[in-house]
Amino acid sequence: xxxxxxxxxxxxxxxxxxxxxxxxxxxxxxxxxxxxxxxxxxxxxxxxxxxxxxxxxxxxxxxxxxxxxxxxxxxxxxxxxxxxxxxxxxxxxxxxxxxxxxxxxxxxxxxxxxxxxxxxxxxxxxxxxxxxxxxxxxxxxxxxxxxxxxxxxxxxxxxxxxxxxxxxxxxxxxxxxxx
Length: 179
Hints:
- By secondary structure, the chain is an all-alpha fold.
- The protein is 76% helix and 0% strand.
- It is built from 8 helices and no strands.
């Protein structure tokens, strides 16, 4: 993928990271449960690579916070770090995981990025953003239980979107012909 196309993909995904949450936040609490901002960041990392994925992960929450007030300023740093990790790790792994089966490659990269982002977010909460008042129970509740619908949504939506983008030749194919 050309550098220009990577920039365009990162910009489009960052914009989606602003627009999608607006729709979800129309229902109180839906943003925290469905995690709509995560979707385009993960797609960006998987199709454009680690740097565009990290950039989308940085821009989406910052722009959304500036334009819509969501995420709120107190939680913006941890969400930003979490999303940067999602974009970076999904892009790094997408470039390296080669099982010969596109969906398996994508799921390995996606699930690994999901876990890394949650670990980084939780670690930063415990060590910096909420030092001394953050527990393992708060991490599990905040990053896994509250966001369970969003986790399921990510698993159901992200990989089919990336596969569809490849099949439509909108992004470069990983393999010459899918088995």
